[in-house]
TrEMBL record:
UniProt topology in membrane: Multi-pass membrane protein
Localization per record: Cell membrane; Membrane
InterPro entries: AAA+_ATPase, AAA_lid_3, ATPase_AAA_core, ATPase_AAA_CS, FtsH, P-loop_NTPase, Pept_M41_FtsH_extracell, Peptidase_M41
Binding site for ATP: 204-211
TM stretches of this protein: 108-129
GO function terms (MF aspect): ATP binding; ATP hydrolysis activity; ATP-dependent peptidase activity; metalloendopeptidase activity; zinc ion binding
Cofactor: how and how many bound: Binds 1 zinc ion per subunit.
EC number assigned by the record: 3.4.24.-
Role of this protein: Acts as a processive, ATP-dependent zinc metallopeptidase for both cytoplasmic and membrane proteins. Plays a role in the quality control of integral membrane proteins.
PROSITE patterns reported for this sequence: AAA
Main location per the UniProt record: membrane
Gene: ftsH
Full protein name: ATP-dependent zinc metalloprotease FtsH
Active site per the UniProt annotation: 427
Length: 607
């Protein structure tokens, strides 16, 4: 559209230019006031005319007062003869200087040819112009198929990443050192007849450093790194993905040794045929092309394909066959030591005050991914800059934890007195139930300042990293999730829309307990719902049902029982500790936020 209007402006400019030129040229010949021959004769007889220039059939008349006029005569007859026919007085005519001039070549050509040539030229120009556009377009159609891979060349110092930039993930690094060694000394491996992996699949939660690690492999081995996100393979036109794939592999082979990194492999590598409506042709074609390329690659091609996914469970088994992505590297979320290391890496080039203890931050951030931590450090730097400080302080980091976790504080979101009271009791309910049950995570902070989408929040963090969760933990969590709802009901005997998010989360948790973890005695040790997902237009429609109506009823019954029991437990705690609940709510109304220590004091004081 933009292009079209641009060429339109061009065309109009040119058109204007030509017509200006034309009128200027035409003006050369007829810029004077035209008079009839009889008028001219009358003027001669009156003795007003000084000179007449004859150019073909036109007469340029110069009057004695300096005025210039023009007139036309018949082309065949001579001027004197014509004038005489009009009754000019011969005596007067003698006073007039008459000069015959040949028509000037230039003005003739322009005056006569231009009106004919201009449209022809214009049309020719248009044909040429549109032709050029079409040519450009066809070049574009040609580049459709070209890979859009981003390249990090080994010479680039700014983008160079090494294993030093990656903290934690020790096992993954060990595995990948082998790949680095192969890229550096392929001969050693080939001589002994060893088959080198063609594909390495990096699996891990979003932000766990998959891209970073792949870049580090390329940086360590000093080979170019071709980066492409799987979703970029696919465009509107069928076949583009496949040709992009072909192109990417062709370029990489030329640059060998090299690494091809395909991000979000699950976007194209999902189990084929799992989509509704006949599957997604384009996705399958692209996937097939990747498989073809990987199979066709010689062992000595020295191109290693690394791919990242956070959903290894949905990948097409064909991708995981030997000779394809047969190396699988798992990246775990960082534990407390790793988190400290990651923080250190990201604090490296930031000015900090001396008395920062990153350990404290690492302790308070269980469940954070590497990307979350990088984000946290950045937020802290922004906070420091906003406060016009030159160095990042501990408090900046601590404040950023909540920001990363829950989104920015929304101080402008003002609550009315009544809303404030309800919010305070709601959050106090969550916190008190959690604090009163033995297996729930300890409360770190309670607040009625809204953050992100939450109106208020109770921040609970596990005291250490968890890998296994027990049933008692889940039951206590379920009860504290309903603590807000229970408090509202107990105190105000009324309900608001506040807890709807809590209810959804709690119900989801209860459903998982029954259908995924086998934690309901009545339903027993079984999972329900197919793992295979339905995809329609790129959206997951949820899991399909692989159990009977009867079982469905039983599952629903169990979920309801779990929810009811959790609600009863929450209500019992709050009724028993009503005084404590009131105390917490009172502090919240006054101060809006209670930190861990203050909270613990209140809870301990009033048992
Ligand atoms: P993924 O590809 O797994 O989603 P990325 O590799 O893109 O995650 O990680 C995003 C950012 O998080 C990285 O650029 C880096 O700054 C930071 N990061 C993640 N993991 C680590 C780690 N182990 N060590 C240092 N930084 C990390
Ligand atoms: Zn709540």
């Amino acid at each position: 559209m933009k292009k079209f209007s641009k060429s339109l402006v061009w065309a109009i400019t040119i058109l204007l230019g030509i017509s200006l030129l034309y009128s200027a040229v035409a003006g050369l010949t007829a810029q004077d006031k035209e008079i009839s021959l009889s008028d001219l004769v009358a003027k001669i007889n009156a003795g007003e005319v000084a000179a007449i220039d004859i150019v073909d059939a036109s007469l340029a008349v110069k009057l004695k007062n300096g005025e210039e006029l023009s007139a036309q005569k018949e082309a065949e007859a001579g001027l004197t003869e014509t004038l005489r026919n009009y009754g000019v007085e011969p005596a007067k005519l003698k006073d007039v200087q008459i000069a015959v001039k040949s028509s000037s070549g230039m003005s003739f050509v322009l005056g006569v040819l231009l009106p004919i040539l201009a449209p022809v030229l214009l049309i020719a120009f248009f044909i040429w112009f549109t032709g050029r556009q079409v040519h450009k377009g066809s070049m574009q159609a040609f580049t459709f198929g070209q890979s859009r891979a981003r390249l990090i060349s080994p010479e680039s110092e700014t983008q160079k990443t090494t294993f030093k930039d990656v903290a934690g993930v020790k096992e993954a690094k060990e595995e990948l050192k082998e790949v680095v060694d192969f890229l550096k000394n392929p001969k050693k491996y080939l001589d002994i007849g060893a088959k080198i992996p063609k594909g390495v699949l990096l699996m891990g939660a979003p932000g766990s450093g998959k891209t970073l690690l792949a870049k580090a492999v390329s940086g360590e081995s000093g080979v170019p790194f071709f980066h492409m996100s799987a979703s970029e393979f696919i465009e509107m036109f069928v076949g583009v993905g496949a040709s992009r794939t072909r192109d990417l592999f062709r370029i990489a082979k030329k640059a060998a040794p090299a690494i091809i990194f395909i991000d979000e492999l699950d976007a194209i590598g999902r189990i084929r045929g799992a989509g509704l409506g006949g599957g997604h042709d384009e996705r399958e074609q692209t996937l097939n092309q990747i498989l073809v390329e990987m199979d066709g690659m010689e062992t000595d091609a020295r191109v290693i394909v690394m791919a990242a996914t956070n959903r290894p469970d949905v990948l097409d088994p064909a991708l995981l066959r030997p000779g394809r992505f047969d190396r699988r590297v798992v990246l775990d979320l960082p534990d407390i030591n790793d988190r400290e290391e990651i923080l250190k890496i990201h604090m490296r080039n930031k000015p900090i005050v001396d008395e920062i203890t990153l350990r404290v931050i690492a302790e308070r951030t269980p469940g954070f991914s590497g990307a979350d931590l990088a984000n946290l450090v950045n937020e802290a730097a922004i906070l420091a800059a906003r406060g016009d400080r030159k160095k990042v302080e501990q408090q900046d980091l601590i404040s950023s934890i909540e920001k990363v976790l829950l989104g920015p504080e929304r101080k402008s979101h003002l609550l009315s007195q009544e809303e404030k009271k309800i919010s305070a009791y709601h959050e106090a309910g969550h916190a008190l139930v959690a604090a009163s049950l033995p297996h729930a995570d300890p409360v770190h902070k309670v607040s009625i300042v809204s953050r992100g989408r939450a109106a208020g929040y109770t921040m609970k963090l596990p005291s250490e990293d968890r890998h296994l969760y027990t049933r008692s933990y889940f039951l206590d969590e379920l009860a504290s999730a309903l603590g807000g709802y229970a408090a509202e009901k107990l105190v105000f005997n009324e309900l608001t829309t506040g807890p709807h998010d809590d209810l959804k989360k709690a119900t989801d948790l209860a459903r998982s307990l029954v259908t995924r973890f086998g934690m309901s005695d009545k339903v027993g040790p079984m999972t329900f719902g197919e793992q295979e997902e339905m995809i329609f237009l790129g959206r997951e429609l949820g899991t399909s049902r692989n159990y009977s109506e009867e079982t469905a009823r039983m599952i629903d019954g169990e979920i309801k029982r779990l929810m009811d029991e959790a609600f009863e437990r929450a209500k019992k705690v709050l009724t028993r500790r009503r005084e404590t609940l009131d105390a917490i709510a009172a502090v919240l109304i006054e101060k809006e936020t209670i930190e861990r220590e203050a909270f613990n004091t209140i809870v301990k004081e009033k048992v």
